[in-house]
Amino acid sequence: MNIEEIIAYIVTVENGFQHILDAAHQIHSSYSDEECYALSLELFENQVYQVRMLSVVLLGYVGVENEKALSFLKERVSRDENWRVQEMLAKSFDFICKERGYERALPLIAEWLADGYPNVVRAVTEGLRIWTSRPYFKEHPLEAVVFLSKHKADSSEYVRKSVGNALRDISKKFPQLVLDELTSWDQDDPKVRYTYRLAVKHLLEKEKRGK
């Protein structure tokens, strides 16, 4: 299929992500990074969310080496109001980290986490789930816990939910590590308490099963 045919197909599918990922792979396999970058900028202006999702995946491919594509993801895509587009932003961020190598990507991860805009931060916290299934963080789980815990009192509930769920995931493999972190939290802060309740959920369920 050519690009027009690919777009005509993806707009007929309302739910799911795999058809978008497959379409992006097909396009990226047939065109250069420069051509994909130009196409992704054009597609992102489309009013149809499926087309913008396709743009975001292409930007992820290109953003492994192209800093302009990476900046576009951070500055423009993160402002898109469609939640499906934000899910693709998270997937694209993880793809970039994977291709660069998670250890090499540590400065990028820190930069996006420090951005302050909720969708940028969540692209990291949600994109790298489950964090300790990723190379480097599998061997250095404490670094994942530290990265995430810095946002336990984030002003955005959207971010705090992602952080709490990510820590809950980590607690399944590294319960003591997460428990040690959680015991240091000040639950008098309602924002922290919200994140804590999500993060501790698996640990509490495990404790109940053990009784």
UniProtKB/TrEMBL annotation:
Gene3D superfamilies for the chain: 1.10.1240.70, ARM repeat domains
Protein name in UniProt: DNA alkylation repair enzyme
Organism: Barnesiella viscericola DSM 18177
High-level lineage: Bacteria, Pseudomonadati, Bacteroidota, Bacteroidia, Bacteroidales
